[in-house]
Design goal:
Elements: H1 3-27, H2 30-33, H3 38-58, E1 60-61, E2 65-66, H4 68-87, H5 93-107, H6 120-134, H7 140-156, H8 162-175, H9 181-190, H10 211-222, H11 226-235, H12 240-248, H13 255-268, H14 276-286, H15 292-309, H16 314-321, H17 327-343, H18 346-350, H19 359-365, H20 372-388, H21 392-398, H22 402-413, H23 420-429, H24 438-453, H25 462-473, H26 478-506, H27 508-521, H28 540-559, H29 565-581, H30 584-602, H31 610-613, H32 616-623, H33 628-642, H34 646-660, H35 667-683, E3 690-694, H36 700-703, H37 707-721, H38 727-739, E4 759-763, H39 766-775, H40 782-797, H41 804-814, H42 817-825, H43 833-848, H44 850-868, H45 885-896, H46 899-910, H47 912-917, H48 928-947, H49 954-968, H50 978-994, H51 1000-1020, H52 1027-1101, H53 1111-1151, H54 1153-1180
Antiparallel strand pairs: 1-2, 3-4
Pfam families: Cnd3
Subcellular location: Chromosome
GO cellular component, one term: condensin complex
């Protein structure tokens, strides 16, 4: 056989190998199910062996190493087999995957030291280069297949030369910007193994991040395709730098990306490398994710990774999660573990002694086992088996008897604060006990009552104690619970009153003064009255000295070593000072208010119960107290007290309003007031707050004829609001309140009334309160902001409020640049709660009713007008610090287009079951876009008229015009309301013909809007018109011109002030520029003078070096040079003086004419003196 025939034979064999691989791939489905598993690799082993044998037999030459012709032919045939798959019109993914995997297995090299047949490395390099060239093909299918095949081959190569790896990185990085999503995905997978390994700790810390890692990180965060983000996330090599970015992806919008994030973190990041706060964040997001598969991924991360890393101990896992700070996360994890144990009981049996069942037995055996985590898991076990798993036998085996529990609870509550969390868990455990033992039940109730009476009991335990007491009494009588608690409160409060009586008797003069002051202020404010006992206080000097010393000790404590002798001494001194600053009666009163607050929350009785009604005796005096803690607790209790009766809420709403508007009030008190006002608005509809205040003497004659009518109206309204059995009592209370100047005074009933000045109720507008609350949204307190936003969202959804100003404030808050910056500062990528609430509120609010759409339209109109009336549309220093009206208009127009309603209507139309039940919902026919567009046009026309005035600066007007054009670009005209559409088109024509005469760019934008509107108007119009419609359009145009005049008057006043401010700002900028130039000029002039002085010194020191025969010519040249030098210096100095004189003149214009004259005279004298000196110097020379 000839050489050509032999070559033809083995080339046919090579082609047959590739064909067999493709045929086997089509017949077997294992390629798709498990393309990288062991089963798939076994199917390729015979074909790889055949190809290796063919390469060794035909290409390798024993003498020369490689036969060049055979090598070139083998390369061409191999590439031809691969290229057929790339360019074939119809190729299955299975075939491409099989061929690529086969090529990768054939070309694979395990390491740099592994022996390879000669020529195989060159073959690998050449094939990969051709594949890299194919990734740049113009055909999208070829480009995609080449990227797919290249990433499969690269990922199968265990070793790649550095030069080849560099070429692969460059090629694949270029494909990351491809417009095809699938190409980007394959490129990402191809770069997975091309990332550089992370440097060891301590080495090259300042080295820049790998380019591949940086690009993958960018795609993971910002790529619009969820599949690309998922591929980038899975391909990244996890490191400490990338950990935070992975943590943000668990809040991705795509379910697939979130699932991949949990899988990646669970597999690649050990529990010890995750901070405790991040652990809680991961579990909080994952265990309550809306997607079941994401929740399951998070659960598998806990069960398969974290639980095993904690030696399969629930207590150690809870300890790693810091359940004292994150108890809710601990509960979710505990129940997840218990569910896992119940489904797989062998997991418990294999690890004996790992799961602690009964903490009482553990404590009796080993006191160190009684830890916060063990008690927490014990309680969770009892709750799970009793409430969730309904295994009462296991629950009974775990729970103690009531007597033992009572002893343990009392001992824990009386211990130090380090076991406070354990005491809280025991109080919650008490709800699971069996109270059939009457003796144990009574014993527990007595212990709880003693804990309430003791001031040493921590305040954080009061809630749990009260809830447990209410639970125990719920089996018998709630009235008994109320009476017992009332007796405890009375016993603790009576010593405070008794001590106040002693102080009053020992200091009669002070009491007379205080009573006289009370008479002077009576009737002015509810919060300004003496409601109850006045506490003994330190003098102002003593209290101030004690507070200063306490602050000094606190600062000193921060500098000392923990638990040192000096540290303990300073801490003891601080405790003594704190005890000195705290009055025991203040603590008793605070404890009374804490108990009253819990009673008002737990009881279902109202003011018809005299015991509940009597709680006002402890609440009202605290509201007027000067101790901030008492005042805050009093306002909180008063808010809860007002929720029991509507008339009580109307009476005391002014108290919260005044405290909220008091600039000297504590921020915690204001937060309490906000919550109380919102709670009352939730609980009662049609609130009519009023103020009881004493009328002025000069108003008696005017109001004399209206007193009886107002009294009758108030009595009728009060009787209508309360028709229950307590109506008479409340009416009597109102009469007492009016007689006493608007307040109850149970502590001093002997004070005489003032019948000569009867009180008349002053109405307090509820909208005023809501607008005042809305103005507090702009504060820097994010907690207060989220509270107000959440309250308003609920009120709007409940139809309790329809104030467009408040809705406009919410809309402005949603697009607040400051709030957008806040959400980017959080390490977990959290948005602020206010933004989250508003993002859900606005779409739901618009979809609810058509009236809500009108409210949003009016709010948008209000926001547009108020934005035009602001003095500054932009901040010159920070352009991004102002509201983006364009984005706001885009969002509002999108909501008012009702696109979501059309989608829901289409979905409902597809479902036959719903179609039978109800009618197909139709899209709302509205013209919100037309009316908002008309408002924008009116503002533009008004601005154009105002701009014609000479006192208005053009920049102030142009800024507003640009903002209006950005908004009007999102308006889409509709003929659902023909008159508004015609008026909108007419106003646009007026704008293009009369406005923007000097602004060509703005005029082109307006013409584009008009062109688009006219085209849409023509498409929708039916060409039906009559005389009636023409007259209506004329009326609308007349109405619009009238509104333009009104807005012109308003904007004229605003823009005059804005122009003056803008002129001041321009002058300030100009002064700053001139001052900068002056500083630069002085620096240059000082430098030139120094250089000229040095030159003159050098010239003076040098001897006359010119020969005698050249004396005349040298003298002439020297004179000419000196004259030229002086001329240049004179010109330079003249320019400097001129600039300095201009700057000084500008400053003198502001300081006054006299200073200007003096400065100019001094400048003239200085210039004259300098000229004389220059002339004298010239004469000397």
């Amino acid at each position: 056989m000839t050489t050509a025939e032999v070559m033809a034979e083995w080339t046919l064999t090579l082609r047959q190998v590739f064909q067999d691989v493709q045929l086997q791939a089509v017949e077997a489905s294992s390629y798709v199910r498990n393309p990288s598993g062991a089963a798939h690799q076994r199917t390729l082993v015979p074909a790889v062996r055949r190809l290796d044998a063919l390469f060794l037999d035909e290409v390798r030459d024993g003498k020369r190493g490689v036969a060049e012709e055979a090598f070139a032919l083998f390369l061409e045939e191999t590439w031809l087999a691969v290229a057929r798959v790339l360019v074939a019109p119809k190729v299955s993914d299975v075939v491409l995957l099989a061929v690529a995997s086969f090529a990768g297995e054939f070309l694979r090299r395990k390491s740099a030291k592994s022996k390879q047949p000669r020529g195989k490395d060159e073959l690998r390099v050449e094939l990969l280069k051709r594949l890299m060239e194919a990734t740049a093909a113009e055909d999208r299918v070829v480009r995609l297949r080449a990227c797919h095949m290249l990433q499969i081959v690269v990922n199968r190569l265990e070793f790649i030369e550095e030069e080849l790896a560099k070429q692969l990185r460059t090629t694949m990085l270029r494909r990351l910007n491809d417009k095809l999503t699938s190409v980007r995905i394959q490129s990402v997978y191809g770069l997975k193994t091309l990332q550089r390994e992370e440097e060891e700790e301590g080495e090259k810390e300042e080295k820049e991040e790998d380019e591949v890692t940086r690009e993958l990180r960018k795609l993971m965060v910002s790529d619009p395709s969820k599949d690309v983000r998922k591929a980038a996330l899975q391909s990244l090599t996890v490191s400490k730098k990338l950990y935070q970015d992975l943590l943000v992806r668990i809040r991705d919008a795509s379910e697939d990306v979130r699932y991949a994030a949990f899988r990646t973190i669970g597999n690649a990041v050990p529990l010890t490398d995750i901070q405790i706060s991040d652990r809680a964040h991961l579990l909080d997001q994952g265990l309550q994710d809306r997607a079941p598969r994401v929740r399951r991924a998070c659960e598998q991360m806990v069960l398969k990774k974290w639980f095993l890393e904690c030696d399969s101990s629930p207590v150690l896992l809870l300890q790693a999660l810091d359940i004292e700070q994150y108890p809710e996360i601990g509960s979710k994890v505990s129940r997840l573990l218990l569910k896992h144990f119940s489904e797989q009981p062998r997991a418990m049996l294999e690890k004996e002694g790992v799961v602690e069942f009964n903490a009482l037995e553990l404590m009796s055996e080993n006191s160190e086992a009684f830890s916060a985590e063990s008690v927490f898991f014990w309680r969770e076990q009892c709750y799970y088996y009793q409430k969730i798993d309904n295994d009462l036998d296991k629950a009974a085996a775990l729970l103690p008897n009531v007597s033992d529990f009572s002893k343990m609870l009392v001992g824990t509550c009386k211990a130090q604060s380090d076991v406070l969390f354990i005491a809280q868990q025991l109080l919650e455990l008490g709800h699971l006990l069996d109270f059939q033992d009457e003796f144990g039940r009574r014993n527990l109730l007595d212990s709880l009552q003693k804990l309430l009476r003791e001031l040493t009991t921590d305040s954080l335990l009061i809630k749990g104690i009260m809830e447990l007491m209410a639970f125990v009494y719920s089996g018998s009588s709630e009235q008994e619970f109320i009476q017992v608690v009332a007796e405890i409160i009375s016993d603790m409060y009576d010593p405070v009153e008794a001590a106040n009586a002693e102080i009053s008797s020992s200091q009669p003069e002070d009491s007379e003064i205080s009573s006289s002051q009370q008479k002077l202020t009576e009737g002015d404010e509810i919060s300004g009255l003496d409601f109850g006992p006045q506490l003994h206080k330190l003098s102002d000097e003593e209290r101030e000295a004690a507070e200063d010393k306490f602050e000094e000790l606190e600062k000193r404590l921060e500098t000392l070593e923990f638990d040192s002798e000096e540290y303990n001494k300073v801490q003891a001194d601080m405790v003594e000072l704190e005890a000195l600053l705290q009055d025991p009666r203040v603590l008793s009163w605070l404890r009374c208010l804490e108990i009253v607050a819990q009673l008002l929350k737990l009881t279902s009785h109202n003011l018809s119960d005299p015991v509940v009604e009597g709680m006002g005796r402890y609440i009202l005096p605290a509201v007027d107290n000067d101790v901030p803690a008492l005042r805050e607790a009093g306002l909180e209790n008063l808010g809860l007290f007002c929720l029991l009766d509507k008339r009580l809420a109307e009476r005391y709403l002014i108290v919260f309003w005044r405290a909220l508007n008091n600039p000297e009030e504590e921020s915690e008190v204001k937060h309490t007031c906000v919550q109380a006002i919102l709670d009352m608005a939730f609980s009662f509809s049609n609130l009519q707050p009023h103020i009881f205040g004493a009328m002025q003497p000069e108003d008696d004659d005017k109001a004399g004829g209206d007193k009886d009518e107002q009294a009758e109206e108030n009595s009728e309204r009060n009787e209508a609001d309360n028709g229950d059995q307590n109506a008479d009592n409340n009416a009597d209370q109102d009469e007492d309140m009016e007689k006493n100047g608007g307040s109850e005074q149970p502590a001093a009933p002997e004070q005489p009334a003032a019948p000569e000045q009867p009180a008349a109720p002053e109405k307090l507008d509820l909208d005023t309160i809501f607008i005042g609350l809305g103005q507090l949204i702009a504060v820097n307190d994010l907690d207060l902001q989220s509270t107000i936003v959440e309250g308003f969202c609920r009120l709007f959804m409940m139809n309790r409020i329809d104030n467009i100003t408040v809705l406009a404030i919410l809309l402005e808050t949603y697009f607040s640049p400051k709030l957008q910056k806040v959400q980017k500062l959080d390490e977990h990528g959290f948005q602020s709660r206010s933004l989250q609430l508003l993002s859900i509120f606005f779409p739901a609010f618009v979809m609810a009713t058509a009236a809500n759409c009108m409210l949003l339209e009016e709010a948008a109109t209000h926001l547009i007008q108020k934005s035009m009336e602001k003095l500054e549309m932009e901040t010159e220093s920070e352009n991004d610090a102002m509201l983006d009206l364009g984005a706001c208009a885009k969002y509002v127009m999108h909501l008012l287009s009702h696109n979501e309603q059309e989608e829901e209507a289409a979905i409902d139309a597809v479902k036959p079951s719903r179609k039978k039940r109800s009618k197909k919902p139709e899209r709302r026919r509205c013209a919100h876009h037309n009316r908002i567009g008309i408002t924008i046009c009116l503002e533009m026309l008004a601005l154009e008229k105002v701009a014609a005035m000479p006192s208005i600066h053009s920049d102030v007007v142009i800024r507003r015009q640009k903002a209006l054009l950005k908004m009007i670009a999102w308006v889409e005209v509709t003929l659902d309301e023909k008159r508004s559409a015609a008026l909108f088109k007419y106003l646009l024509e007026e704008i293009t013909s009369k406005c923007f005469s000097s602004q060509r760019g703005l005029l082109r934008s307006a013409e584009a809007v008009l062109k688009r509107t006219s085209a849409s108007f023509t498409e929708q119009s039916t060409n039906e018109g009559d005389g009636q419609q023409a007259s209506a359009e004329e009326q609308d145009q007349t109405w619009a011109h009238g509104l333009v005049k009104e807005r012109e008057e308003v904007l004229n006043k605003v823009l005059l002030t804005a122009s003056a401010d803008h002129e001041k700002w321009l002058k300030q900028q100009e002064r700053e520029k001139k001052a900068k130039r002056r500083r630069t000029a002085r620096y240059v002039s000082s430098g030139s003078s120094d250089s000229s002085d040095s030159e003159s010194k050098e010239e003076g020191d040098e001897p006359a070096a010119a020969p005698t025969r050249r004396e005349l010519s040298s003298r002439r040249s020297k004179t000419a040079a000196v004259s030229r030098m002086h001329e240049k210096e004179g010109e330079f100095e003249a320019k400097i003086k001129e600039a300095l004189q201009d700057d000084d003149a500008d400053e003198d214009d502001e300081d006054g004419d006299e200073e200007e004259d003096s400065e100019s005279e001094s400048d003239e004298e200085e210039s004259a003196a300098e000229e004389e000196e220059d002339s004298a110097a010239e004469e000397d020379e």
